[in-house]
Specification:
4 domains, binds zinc ion, mainly alpha
């Protein structure tokens, strides 16, 4: 008699990753404030193709009390109840060839799982072909994340090759293969970085920020500009007065001393869309020690990222800590440079044990991660500063502000006729017969400026009462 030996019916196989962008969109975004159901917004308030990482964490937290990470032993995630019912799997399951997934699933997979994203970029760099794969990985909103994944993969392949060399003591087939993959990924990473810069230039050009205005050939204007630079505090006071008289708010004419200051001013003027609340606000209020720990913790894990650090008002602080950590970690990682993961001279090393090899590789991995984060931080800073340049360029206050600055410089010239005259005399040899400046290139101009600034300082010193000389 024939008996049915097939196993009891199982639920149909679910796809490996159940987190979809439609699900995540059902909560509001803590990073950009996008409302439920709405796409995430860029700093320029434009809808993005991808969702912010903080939004998927929030979704998982709200819905399941989980975070989108692989559980860590003893960590807070491990305490969460493991939920693995059908239609729910909050921990990504490794897929051997994720690039074969249907396109929408693949798009969600690389949005929510960094390590799978890295797998896919490596496959693509090493020649896997599939219609639309390259576009998916390198479209406008994913380019930066793909550069990040390539950078991670590049370090990972390098470190795995070095570890193998140290363990085996020579090059073998596996190290050859790792090296081949490394070269392909490094090449792709370089191309992607170039593409990133090309798109930046394109964006800034389309917005009219680039090319910048040519330097003036009017000697009067140039003299006043340099005078204002020499008497900066006075110029600032006059500018504030003139800007206020033109009805501009004080933030518009506030002086900017640092790159971070530029972000603060733009935020105050409402030029960039970057709400500071929740986690980002908490991190903003941290002491340097706590902040450093946060940066280190973020750099130590790849599966999850700290969205709060990406907040525009935290970017420069994050950068400072990354730089410092790189310098501290590089010697232990046997990298002569703190700005790159220099190749390991493994032939010269005599590790005593496997444990020692692992420890060294751990330190190299940390340096690699810090460098990778530094790259991410730099792309984020570029994005913020470009967004500010574009917003300032198009702002209705800009012509008023420029007029106020011009008036302030004119007034400065009237108040210091002797200094103005001094500059004009120094510019005299650089004039054409029609009285225009003949400083053709930036170098000539810089040289003339140096001469002028020196002369201004000397005239100031000559006019000042003699100071007591210390012996
Ligand atoms: Zn968002």
């Amino acid at each position: 008699m024939h008996t049915n030996t097939s196993p009891p019916s199982r639920p149909p196989t679910q796809s490996v990753w159940h987190l979809s962008s439609t699900d995540v969109r059902s909560v509001d975004c803590p990073t950009c404030d996008a409302a439920k159901g709405q796409p995430c917004l860029s700093l320029r308030n434009r809808p993005l193709n991808v969702l912010h990482r903080g939004r998927s964490s929030r979704y998982l937290n709200l819905r399941f009390g989980l975070r989108a990470t692989r559980p860590r032993r003893g960590g807070p995630e491990a305490a969460a109840h493991p939920l693995t019912g059908p239609a729910l799997r909050a921990v990504p399951v490794a897929h051997n060839e994720p690039w074969r997934l249907p396109r929408n699933e693949l798009a969600d997979l690389i949005t929510f799982s960094f390590l799978d994203h890295a797998k896919v970029v490596v496959a693509e760099a090493c020649g896997v072909e599939r219609t639309g794969l390259t576009e998916l990985l390198y479209d406008g909103d994913r380019l930066s994340a793909s550069i990040d994944a390539l950078t991670y993969a590049q370090h990972d392949l390098q470190i795995r090759r070095e570890e193998r060399c140290l363990a085996v003591g020579r090059w073998d087939q596996e190290t050859q293969h790792l090296d081949w993959q490394y070269a392909a990924v490094a090449q792709r990473a370089q191309e992607a970085r170039k593409e990133f810069q090309r798109r930046r230039t394109e964006d800034l050009t389309a917005a009219g920020v680039l090319p910048g205005l040519p330097a003036t050939d009017d000697p009067r204007e140039q003299a006043l500009l340099w005078l204002a630079q020499h008497l900066e505090p006075q110029f600032r006071r006059l500018l504030t007065e003139h800007a206020a008289a033109a009805g501009l708010p004080p933030e518009a004419s506030a002086a900017v001393r640092t790159r971070h200051g530029a972000i603060e001013r733009a935020t105050a003027r409402g030029l960039i869309h970057a709400p500071l609340h929740g986690d980002a606000l908490r991190v903003h209020g941290m002491s340097e020690g706590e902040f450093r720990l946060r940066v280190l913790r973020d750099a130590s894990t790849q599966a999850d990222r700290d969205d709060a650090l990406c907040h525009p008002l935290l970017l420069h602080r994050w950068r400072q800590h990354l730089k410092q950590l790189q310098t501290e970690v590089a010697p232990g990682a046997l990298s002569p440079s703190a700005q790159s993961l220099a190749p390991l001279a493994w032939e010269e090393l005599r590790p005593q044990s496997l444990h020692e090899v692992r420890e060294l590789m751990g330190r190299r991995r940390l340096l690699g991660n810090l460098l990778q984060r530094y790259g991410e931080n730099r792309r984020l800073r570029y994005a913020v500063h470009d967004a500010i340049s574009i917003a300032e360029h198009a702002h209705p206050e800009k012509p008023l502000l420029m007029a106020a600055a011009r008036d302030a410089r004119e007034e400065l010239g009237r108040r210091h006729p002797d200094l103005y005259k001094l500059i004009r005399n120094l510019l005299e040899p650089h004039l054409t017969r029609y009285g225009r400046l003949r400083l053709r290139n930036a170098q000539d101009r810089q040289q003339a400026r140096g001469q002028v600034m020196l002369a201004l300082l000397e005239s100031e010193r000559a006019a000042a009462p003699p100071r007591q000389v210390r012996c």
